[in-house]
Design brief:
The protein is an alpha/beta fold and 389 residues long. The protein has two domains: 4-19 and 272-388, Lyase, Ornithine Decarboxylase, Chain A, domain 1, CATH 2.40.37; 22-270, TIM Barrel (Alpha-Beta Barrel). Helices cover 29% and strands 22% of the residues. The chain has helices at 4-10, 22-39, 53-60, 71-79, 96-104, 115-127, 163-171, 196-213, 242-252, 267-270, 303-307; strands spanning 17-20, 41-46, 65-68, 87-89, 109-112, 132-137, 179-185, 221-223, 260-263, 274-286, 289-294, 313-315, 322-328, 337-345, 352-356, 377-379. Strand 2 (41-46), helix 3 and strand 3 (65-68) form a beta-alpha-beta unit. 44% of the residues are buried.
């Protein structure tokens, strides 16, 4: 599966490091752009998935917008070529400085998540003598059927406005004189593989729009968030079926005349384009079996520790018979494991290990815990990634 030439190239790099296949990223971007165009949908890439500047410049070159959840993400998006009028700003805890920045940069929309936030944005806009476009982020109480830590659309979650909040806003909408409310925003979770969830979301949006019509409120744009998952167990399934995803909304969502529809994909665009390379430092026997210690830890990829995520793991250096290993990092935390009971060719010190599908929430969630250095990134203009799969 792996050529000797390729493995020899990989061995020249100090580990750990991230590696990105920009060819695959281009193919994925082309696929989602083509699928979205069939339905006239608008795409805003979610920077929280991966904010690597080189990758952002590639993504912005396709004319997509950006979904940001901090002021620094707005600044990074603008620096990397995203147009300000295609940037949306979400987040349950925006600071006054971040709100001022978004107003100053004339972004497309501030997506508000609480009654008090609306008042704060209105007040800041008034002081700036501006009228600001906002969307109301609604919590639709839809179960995304994903990990509890990345579910965002249930009433027990901290995100969004309730239906009771909507009633309060509509009843006193005239008091928000410096807000141009013309949108609704929804985001119910991440790594969603059950497309029926999006059908349920569409129906909830229809109900909410019908409710708002009683107040003669007709939003000009609907932002349906992101959440489409990828196949971590089979990274060779590189590009998600974007057309099937969008078709769910096209078949179930009631769209009013002149109403634009927006999405905020992140993981589904970048997830399969990245991998994490790490070396085996030591092997040891424990009461539970064989253990591999590698030089990458949850400082480079926190998903297994935080979400109990399972990534495909490959030994690039061994063609020996398979054995079963637990794979741990060097961090002084018991949760620092990449996998349990993983079958790999017989592994020894110095072997090169590839952890697949880390393009999303790998580099962007990296930390310097234990005063570790941040891992560098390399790209396929140096090494051919496609031969790895």
């Amino acid at each position: 599966m792996f050529s000797t030439e390729l493995i020899n190239k990989l061995k020249k790099f100090n580990t750990p490091f991230y590696f990105y296949d920009t060819d695959l990223l281009h193919k994925t971007l082309f696929a989602i752009k083509e699928a979205a165009s069939l339905f006239q949908y608008n795409i805003h890439y979610a920077l929280k998935a991966n904010a690597n500047p080189k990758l952002l410049k590639i993504i912005s070159s396709y004319g997509f917008g950006a979904d940001c959840v901090s002021g620094n993400e707005i600044e990074r998006a603008l620096h990397c070529g995203f147009s300000s009028d295609k940037i949306v700003f979400a987040g349950v805890g925006k600071t006054d400085l971040e709100i001022k920045l978004s107003i100053e940069k004339h972004i497309y929309s501030i997506n508000c998540e609480s009654l008090e936030e609306l008042e704060v944005v209105n007040s800041i806009a008034s002081k700036e003598n501006k009228r600001v476009r906002v969307a109301l982020r609604i919590n639709p109480n839809v179960d995304a059927k994903t990990h509890k830590n990345i579910t965002t659309g249930l009433t027990v979650n901290k995100f969004g406005l309730s239906i009771d909040d909507l009633h309060r806003i509509m009843s006193k909408i005239d008091k928000y004189k410096n807000l141009h409310m013309d949108g609704l925003h929804f985001h119910i979770g991440s790594q969603i593989n059950n497309l029926n969830v999006f059908s349920e979301l569409s129906k909830k949006v229809n109900t909410i729009q019908s409710y708002l019509e009683e107040y003669n409120f007709y939003p000009n744009h609907i932002n349906l968030g992101g959440g489409l998952g990828i196949n971590y167990q089979k990274p060779e399934d590189q590009i998600p079926d974007f057309q099937a995803y969008f078709k769910i909304f096209a078949n179930n969502l009631n769209v009013n005349a002149n109403q634009s529809i927006h999405f905020e994909p992140g993981r589904s665009i970048i997830g399969q384009s990245g991998m994490l390379l790490t070396r085996v430092l030591y092997t040891k026997e424990t009461e539970n079996g064989k253990l591999i210690i590698v030089d990458a830890g949850f400082t480079e990829l926190i998903r297994p520790a935080l979400y109990q995520a399972q990534h495909k793991i490959v030994n690039l250096s061994s063609n020996d018979c398979n054995e079963t290993y637990d794979i741990a990092g060097p961090i002084c935390e018991t949760s620092d494991y990449f996998g349990r009971s993983v079958k790999l060719p017989r592994t020894k010190r110095g072997d090169l290990i590839a952890i697949m599908s880390v393009g999303a929430y790998g580099e962007t969630m990296a930390s310097q815990y234990n005063l570790r250095s941040l891992a560098p990134s390399f790209y396929n203009d140096v090494i051919s990634y496609s031969a790895l799969i």
